[in-house]
Amino acid sequence: MRLRLPPRKKFWEWFTRYAPQEIVASASTLLATYYLKPFFEHDSQLLSNIGASYLITAIDALVYAVYALIREWMRHGRTPIGFIERCGLTLRDIVAEYTVSYYVDTAFTRPFCILLMTRTVSNRFIGVFVGETVASVLFYAMTIPCYELRKKFFGSSVPSLDPTMAPLGQKER
């Protein structure tokens, strides 16, 4: 049995969708690492390192979520729908795509990877960067299938801009 990989077009779609927000979130993580320097200086204080790992993860998650919300909100803004419908579509898409992977990543995967790599590698910036990268690979291994399922069940979720179509929630005449 041969493993079938998705076409190159899918990889490009995923890259253009997730790379910008990952870059912004990773930059915020490294910036937080710089400001949380006192927490990482004492290698013997494991509790301090665990707290710093969770704090870095929270900052990363917040920046990532805000970026995703803004992206989805702007994507739905290109359609002639009302404010309530736009909020509903944005919330539906975010929940369908990120819920499972977001909770697993924020609660377990990312803090563990950051903690493990900062304790393994002597330089904390390299440790946080490597831990962040490993956690991101695991995160996208869960997120991309959810994204594809969301597209399958909800479509692109951006209604056609065809003026002959009825607005969402109304029947065609």
Keywords summarizing the entry:
173 residues, mainly alpha
What's a concise summary of this model?
The protein is mainly alpha-helical and 173 residues long.
Strand content: under 5%
Structural class: mainly alpha
Span between termini: 51 Å
Total count of domains: 1
Question: Mean pLDDT across all residues, rounded?
Answer: 81
Query: What does the largest sheet look like?
Result: none
Taken in chain order, the helices and strands follow as HHHHH
Radius of gyration: 20 Å
Number of strands: 0
Descriptive notes:
This protein is an all-alpha fold. It has one domain (17-154). The protein has five helices and no strands. It has helices at residues 8-35, 37-41, 46-76, 83-120, 124-154. The protein is globular. The N and C termini lie far apart (51 Å). Mean pLDDT is 81; it is low at 157-173.
Per-chain topology:
Elements: H1 8-35, H2 37-41, H3 46-76, H4 83-120, H5 124-154
Helix pairs in contact: 1-3, 1-5, 3-4, 4-5
